[in-house]
């Protein structure tokens, strides 16, 4: 497989009710083909969120968007464009970061979480110096992260739940 210059071609999922932002690094080949996040059939992102949120497993892009919006979760990636070979995170070069600082100015995001170490590393390098907003790294839901079972991922990822609680900060639902 050869290296290509790839551009992120689908929008962040975020609105005025979004409480947390989950950032990946860059869409996989399958996600780029599907034009939506976590499109590889073995990626556990949707299954994990469905279980954590006690929400029916979304199958279509519209169902996935609906679950995210109803539960006030935003999703985007740190990289707007880069040189990449296939879906290999280790091959990523010539990064152009996404416009996350602008997004954070527009929306009242409470917390940012990284889906994997690379997203955390890239955020700290390109975005944190501009925003000063911390990111919490969570284990990747990628099939490449076989060391983590779904239940082990759930144990780690449940840290997002308090940020989604409507009673925090005196807000009404």
Give an account of the 3D structure.
Helix content is 34%, strand content 21%. The chain is an alpha/beta fold. The strands form two sheets. The protein has a four-stranded parallel sheet with strand order 3-2-6-7. The longest helix is centred in the middle third of the chain and has 10 residues, at 61-70. The chain is globular. Mean pLDDT is 93; it is low at 167-173.
Task: Summarize the SSE layout with pairings.
Elements: E1 3-7, E2 20-24, H1 29-34, H2 45-53, H3 61-70, E3 73-77, E4 79-85, E5 93-97, H4 100-106, E6 111-115, H5 117-126, H6 128-131, E7 135-138, H7 150-157, H8 161-164
Parallel strand pairs: 2-3, 2-6, 6-7
Antiparallel strand pairs: 1-4, 4-5
Radius of gyration: 15 Å
Within the largest sheet, what's the order of strands?
Answer: 3-2-6-7
**Helix/strand-derived class?**
alpha/beta
Summed over residues and divided by their number, the pLDDT gives a mean of 93
Strand composition percent: 15-25%
Which overall shape is indicated by the principal axes computed on the Cα atoms? globular
- Report the end-to-end length measured between terminal Cα atoms: 49 Å
Order of helices and strands: EEHHHEEEHEHHEHH
Helical proportion?
Answer: 25-40%
Number of helices: 8
Low-pLDDT ranges: 167-173
Largest sheet: 4 strands, parallel
Record field, number of beta strands: 7
Features:
alpha/beta, 7 strands, 4-stranded parallel β-sheet, 3-stranded antiparallel β-sheet, 173 residues, globular
Concise account of the structure shown:
With 173 residues, the chain is of the alpha/beta class.
